[in-house]
Amino acid sequence: MPHWAMVIDLDRCTGCEACVIACHAENNIPIVGEEQSAKGRQVNWIRVERYWEGEYPNVRARFIPVLCQHCDAAPCEPVCPVYATYHNPEGLNAQVYNRCIGTRFCANNCPYSVRYFNWFDPRWDTPLDEQLNPDVAIRSKGIIEKCSFCIQRIHRARQRAREENRAIRDGEVQPACAQSCPAEAMVFGDLDDPESRVSRLAASRRAFHLLGELGTKPRVIYLKEDEWNEPPAE
Amino acid sequence: MKRREFLITTALGAGSTVLLESCGHSEEKIIPLLISEEQLIPGAEQWTASVCRQCAAGCGILVRTMMGERETIVNGERVRLSVRQAKKIEGNPDHPVNRGRLCARGQAALQVLYNPDRVKTPLKRVGPRGSGHFQPASWDEALELVTVRLKELREQNEPHTLLFLTGALQGPTTTVIERFLQAFGSPNLIRHDAFAPDPVREANRLTMGYDAYAALDLERTNYLLSFGAGFLETYLSPVQYSRGFGHMRQGRPGRRGKIVQIEPRFSLTAANADEWVPVKPGTEGALALAMAHVIMQEGLYDKEFVSRSSEGFEEFRRFVEENYHPDRVASFADVAAARIRRIAREFATHRPALALAGDAATAHTNGLFTAVAVAALNALVGAIGAPGGIFFDAPPPLGPLPPVMLDDVARRGLDRVPLGGAPRSALTLAEQLLSSQPYPMRVAFIHETNPVFTLPEAAKVKEALDRVPFIVSFSPFLDETATLADVILPDHVPLESWTDAIPVSGTGRAVFGIGQPIVAPLHDTRSTPEVLIQLAKALGGSVAASFPWESYSDVLKTVARGLFAARRGSVVAEDFDSFWDQLVTKGGWWDDAVPSPIAFRTPSRKFEFVIGRKGSGIPEMETEPQFAGDGSDYPFHLIVYPSVAFGDGRGANQPWLQEMPDPMTTACWGSWVEINPKTAERLGVKENDLVWIESPYGRVQAPVLLFPGARPDTLHIPVGQGHDAYGRYAQHRGVNPLKILAPLREPRTGSLAWAATRVRVSKAEGSKRIVKIGFDRRHTEAERR
């Protein structure tokens, strides 16, 4: 059984936000408008955090796409009174919408702030709703939603593989964010397969976990190197 | 026939007639898209290739369609129709521009298709011009209104008074436009794309003989020196360059390329560079020459290339030695001489290296000088036509169209002096329209461009267009320019029609992208090249005879015959029909990747170091930048920038992009002015305080955003918001900083010097909270201080 994981190479990521819009399109994420955005009620299953360092002129900005880390030791899971959030056998931190009663304990307990509460029923100005992806449920008011690693795409790939009587190929499943990424910074795959791209990248000396010291055992692995060094003369 | 099927057929009647009309008789491609409900399989997906038209980069896309339902009223009865709907757009993995990748704007094209504010039928103006009062008209009626005017021009021997304004697109659609004008008898085709780096193109023509943008071999480069070009944001082909960037950084084990971004504003590209050089605005060209000075003096240049393949090196060298000593340049460019020397040495010794110019660096009155200076750097490090350097593509071998038929009226019209100056510029055009020189225009066609929004108010585009008695717009949206029209003949959006694109930036090989209609048109719209063919037919005579096609897809088939005959590249087939099938299925044709050594097309057949050459025939090239606004009255440089979300403003009607945080500021849904925190302190303003930004040409109000990457003497405002029209998501939101720019231009290309305006800041009443997303920790601290 695969154990899904994602590698995000921060040396490649430019912070361009393509992943964010790709996720909106794939996962029926509603727009909340200016007023609600100001109240922090935007839904972004993936967002690009930007950090400033230094002062002008020695200023730097760093980008880090933050999505559900699908932690193996997920702090959100034990606090849900109704088992709406649980760990599936393939390592995904899954959210069962029709169990969720909206306590928001999980969001409160998530160190990455990647769980989003629906403050109202989503609305699309007609005919924008014609774009909605029929593979993904529309979430109603009062429940929590979050990144699913595009589980619908995993299902599709599995279905296809089964029809063709084979295993899922490495690289066959790509969440919408990874698929879109112009700089090819995101790689998705099976961490149990030592030959997969994601496994090989995760073994990099550049690899680290976001807030790894919390012991959440994230399934998202970031890569980051030091600055440019003058290569030796040839 | 079953009852449901009957209903569907009736309901689709109107739409399908349009579709068939507008797409001709290629039933094999069209009919399958109008699948009846019985043939659509619920839940089954289909991916169809096309090209992205959100900017001129020409990325290949795949569009996912599925069965969906649409509620509509048929004969007074509410019914639910099963229709094919577009659900998702992804990059086409085979396409050489983007190789499966796509940017945020490309993803958002679905919200162009399903935008609630589209123009749904032809419109005719009923209120005063610009009032926005229109009445729906039938296509017959609207086309008749236009045809009558056009016939009048030809009968009165004034065909040259037809003006056609269009955007940056290249390819067969433009060919149809050019052909229509020719057959009609007007030399007046003007293209306007606000942030197209015209000086870069002109520099390529002067130094290398190519009137084109170069392909950049980022993947193999070790050192990229970018003068202002926001190649990871909106510059020419950002998806292609981002991919190259990723590869340059981490695609080659053990080898990480270095990127130096030289520009006054700390852009997204600067943030991703290894080093940012906040140069004084307008001095980028001088800085490039100071680096050339170091490279030449220390003998670090590619002597073989220079001696074998260049012309004018000695004059260039003398000129640079006399005028651009690093110490002297350091005194005004705000970059230390030691740093100039270090970067120059790194650049020359870490080959393959590549220099690039664009955006704000070339948006000065001396923009051409800067672009030519940067081209010289490429020559000095032997980057031209070498791996890791720059290349020029051959154009795709498109088949020729039969010759245009010209009657006497057309011939006389074409002999008239064209408007817009040479090279053609919308700014020059506006002046000429205002002064009715060399002659007044009587009819204007406006297509895929919105100059009223994208040019400064001081350019008086609105007033200029008001001098044209009859304006026809093809815009699918009521944008600021379309609002001035007398008749609107709304275009399909790209996902509904045949579409094509030749990428604006090179890829290293010839590319032709094509897309078939993917969903049935949502509204009573028609494809513009189709409408032009119809108009030509209605005009009769030689104009009609120049368009011997039933539909636009026939034009595409004619040009595709050239690709078929080439018998090489990504699609090769035995017979044309199967070639066409594969071409449309794959979304285009691209040449085999072959290393293409460069053949210079200059008079000398070599690279020409234009700078410093006496009698080189380019006297208009200014070396010193001019600014609007005196330094004492207007102490700040204003740098406006095309935003990652909206480009030149055309993305502002797409709600996904409105809610998308700007990468550098995490702000959304509005406008702001970026100010260095220390400058703000000096001015006594805090984050979110409203301020007036005033140039000699006007003022705008925006909240302050404390931006650590702003020079103390420079302010930035993103472009894209501040629409007076353009639908519910865009209208009356934020400000348009382009309005207050000076109409200064780079003299040779006539392109707007949009970085050349100086401004002053004053406190305004109150504040407006900028909506930011995520954890903006640094600013919170700054506010607390």
Number of strands of chain B: 29
Q: How much helix, percentage-wise, in residues of chain B? A: 25-40%
Cα distance spanning the termini of chain B: 76 Å
Estimate the strand proportion of chain A.
Answer: 15-25%
Low-pLDDT runs of 5+ residues of chain B are: 1-37, 777-785
Estimate the helix proportion of chain A, in percent: 10-25%
What does this structure look like?
The complex is a heterodimer of chains A (234) and B (785). Chain A contains six helices and ten strands. Chain A is of the alpha+beta class and 234 residues long. In chain A, the strands form four sheets. A four-stranded mixed sheet of chain A has the order 8-1-10-9. Chain A has a two-stranded antiparallel ribbon with strand order 2-3. In chain A, strand 4 (85-87) and strand 5 (93-95) form a beta hairpin. In chain B, helix 10 crosses helix 14 (337-349) and helix 10 (284-297) runs parallel beside helix 15 (367-380). In chain B, strand 25 and strand 26 form a beta hairpin. Chain B is built from 26 helices and 29 strands. Mean pLDDT of chain B is 91; it is low at 1-37 and 777-785. Chain B starts with a helix and ends with a helix. With 785 residues, chain B is an alpha/beta fold. In chain B, 32% of the residues lie in helices and 18% in strands. In chain B, the strands form eight sheets. Chain B has a seven-stranded mixed sheet with strand order 5-4-17-16-15-6-7, with helices on one face. In chain B, strands 24-26-25-28-22-27 form a six-stranded mixed sheet. Chains A and B meet through helix 1, helix 2, strand 2, strand 3 and helix 5 of A and strand 2, strand 3, helix 3, helix 4 and helix 8 of B.
